[in-house]
Design a protein that fits this description.
CATH class of the largest domain: Mainly Beta
Helix content: 55-70%
CATH superfamily of the largest domain: Glucose Permease (Domain IIA)
CATH topology of the largest domain: Glucose Permease (Domain IIA)
Mean pLDDT: 76
Radius of gyration: 46 Å
Number of domains: 2
Distance between the termini: 43 Å
CATH architecture of the largest domain: Distorted Sandwich
Order of helices and strands: HHHHEEEEEEEEEEEE
Number of strands: 12
Structural class: alpha+beta
Strand content: 15-25%
Shape: rod-shaped
Low-confidence stretches: 1-21
């Protein structure tokens, strides 16, 4: 960002005692010298608006990323819990399967030790029908037990296989979620850096504009001092004559900002507005509010291209932010005469006329006259 050079010069101090032709030449020199400053101001305003928008976008992205990170963390916790539960169920199934295997092993050992007794041999050894029925019942129990044991073992094997597949799926999901969480953390860190950079940039721009505004306020005081010097010297006779005229509107358009304290459109802080802003397109003619003598015509810091007219009786008017000027210092003008054209020079957010009425150099409400 550019460093803000001084937006005004003390040339106005001597303006009242300088011949109009010399003052005009000096103003032309200042115009060339400060053209670069005007471009820098416009670029800074554009960058400030862009940086402000970019900061808002970054803050929205940061909030979104943080929300996504919180959701991913919750999914990660849930998946880990599910995986722990599945592993516990898998271990329980493996334990049951081991129990079934032990039971089956005992059954096979018993058959081996007793010579592989068949179910028919048991039935054939019956001494009576009642004994046969009892033996048949016992054989049925053994058959049911053997089949039940084999079925239970098969079910446990299938259950274990399902748990293992589920564990693999959950482990894969866990790896993906962990990677996503890591990426979100990196995004948050990167977006925080972007936000810090933008905040720093806006802070520097704010310092720049605060300095520019302070210099505009200083220029406003310089204009008041120049008016008073003029009224005490060159315009003494005019000052001694009471002002009995009336002001016309310099530009026939709507007022967008009135006289008094307001929230500054660039800095967003409460500042005194020493005039009224009249909205108009660039190049719209600006007309003298009343007849008088041009005290100053040239660049005036934050006022940009500016005309100051003395109307006698302590009354004067100021026309700021012009795109170009149509009169020079020392010239007499009549009411309604074109003295310049609407623009956006100096400390301005867009094309408009900044119009002031001053009594004895002090700003007063133009809408009261």
């Amino acid at each position: 960002m550019c460093q803000a050079p001084s937006l005004y010069t003390p040339w106005a101090v001597a303006a009242a005692t300088t011949r109009p032709i010399d003052l005009h030449h000096r103003q032309q020199e200042l115009e060339r010298e400060k053209e670069k400053i005007r471009r820098q101001l416009r670029q800074t305003k554009s960058k400030q608006r862009a940086a402000g928008y970019e900061l808002k976008v970054t803050e929205r992205r940061l909030r979104t990323t943080r929300n996504q990170l919180a959701q991913t963390d919750a999914q990660l916790y849930s998946t880990r819990s599910e995986l722990d539960g599945t592993n516990r169920r898998l271990q329980a199934a493996l334990t049951r399967l081991d129990g079934h295997r032990e039971a089956m092993s005992s059954r096979l050992v018993a058959i081996y030790e007793h010579g592989g007794i068949e179910y028919l041999d048991v039935l054939a050894g019956s001494a009576s029908f009642a004994d046969f029925a009892n033996r048949l019942y016992l054989v049925q129990l053994m058959v049911d037990q053997d089949f039940g044991l084999m079925k239970a073992m098969q079910e446990e094997r299938e259950r274990i296989e399902r748990y293992r597949r589920k564990v693999e799926t959950q482990e894969h999901k866990l790896v993906q979620l962990e990677a996503r969480v890591e990426r979100k953390h990196e995004q948050v860190a990167s977006q925080r850096k972007d936000k810090a950079r933008l905040v720093g940039k806006l802070r520097q721009q704010r310092i720049y504009w605060e300095r520019a505004l302070a210099e505009m306020e200083q220029e406003s005081r310089a204009i008041g001092a120049q008016i008073r010097r003029y009224q005490r010297s060159t315009g003494r006779a005019r000052y001694a004559t009471p002002w009995t005229g009336s002001f016309i509107k310099p530009v026939n358009s709507g007022i967008t900002s009135g006289f008094g304290y307001r929230i500054h459109p660039i800095l967003g802080v409460r500042k005194m507005h020493t005039g009224i802003d009249i909205s108009a397109a660039t190049g719209t003619p600006i007309r003298a509010a009343d007849a008088g003598a041009v005290i100053s015509s040239g660049r005036r810091g934050g006022y940009g291209l500016c005309v100051v007219i003395d109307h006698g009786g302590g009354m004067s008017t100021v026309y700021g932010h012009c795109s170009r000027l149509a009169v020079t210092a020392g010239r007499e003008v009549r009411q309604g005469q074109v003295i310049g054209y609407v623009g956006s020079t100096g400390l301005s957010t867009g094309p408009h006329l900044h119009f002031e009425v001053r009594r004895d150099g002090t700003p007063v409400n133009p809408q009261s006259y």
